[in-house]
Amino acid sequence: MAAPMLLTSLRASRAQDSWPPVFEAGRSQFTVVRPRAAMPPMRLQEPNGRDTIVSPRAGRITLVNFWATWCAACRLDLPTLARLAGSRPDRLDIVAICTDTKDLRKIRAFLGNLAVKDLACYVDTYGAVAQASTEMFPIIGMPITYLIGTSGRVEGYIAGAPDWLSPEGARLLQFYREQT
Question: What per-residue confidence (pLDDT) applies to 134?
Fold first, then answer.
């Protein structure tokens, strides 16, 4: 009788290992996305006006964060993401994209009031995010962050301003870093 229970327990623990650890932010929780679509390259603009193409790098996790200048929670989220970017530059890419305005002066002023110097911020000048949001990045809240795994595929998202520097955030990032 003990052997069947042990086998059931082992199967359950293996099934749990295939799912990411719980990561919450207020009323929101990291949500796995299926099917896992590949993140396309996006043509964006830096706040200084320079055009750039953003795409995930193989073997690295990318967090794609959507924010707005009117968003109070974004004022909390962006500095946390900047600290995360500064603490793990060799293992993690963070892309923060402004979705509400193309006014570079307004965006620079907004970012200048926050401690975000280590954060790669961009503007959706060419509508790349608008197009991608209907295909793979639904913006269901603000801010919202999508996690792109090491294979370049969208793994999941979390809305709100989670503490990525918490032990739970570190466990989630480590889980996806170990996925192949």
Answer: 61
Q: How many CA atoms lie within 13 A of 121 on its CB side?
A: 28
CA distance 161 to 117: 18
What is the model's pTM?
Answer: 0.84
Which tokens belong to 115?
Answer: 């401690």
| Euclidean distance between CA atoms 148 and 48, whole angstroms | 26
Say if residue 143 is preceded by a cis peptide, omega within 30 of 0. Answer: yes
Using CB atoms within 10 A of its CB, is residue 161 exposed (0-12), middle (13-18) or buried (19+)?
Answer: buried
In terms of Cα–Cα distance, which of 110, 103, 124 is closest to 79? 110
Distances (CA, A) of 80 to 63, 83, 178: 12, 5, 23
Please check whether residue 122 is in contact with residue 96, taking contact to mean a CB–CB distance below 8 angstroms. Answer: yes
What's the rounded Cα separation, in Å, for the pair 96 and 38?
Answer: 18
- The model's pLDDT over 119-137, given as tens digits with 9 standing for 90+, comes to 999 998 888 776 666 666 7
Give the C-alpha distances (Å, rounded to integers) separating 159 from 9, 23, 82, 163, 179: 33, 11, 17, 12, 23
What number of residues does the chain have? 180
Residue 11: what pLDDT? 38
140 has a pLDDT exceeding 70: yes
Other beta carbons within 10 Å of 87: 13
Residue 126, φ and ψ in degrees, nearest 5 = -105, 10
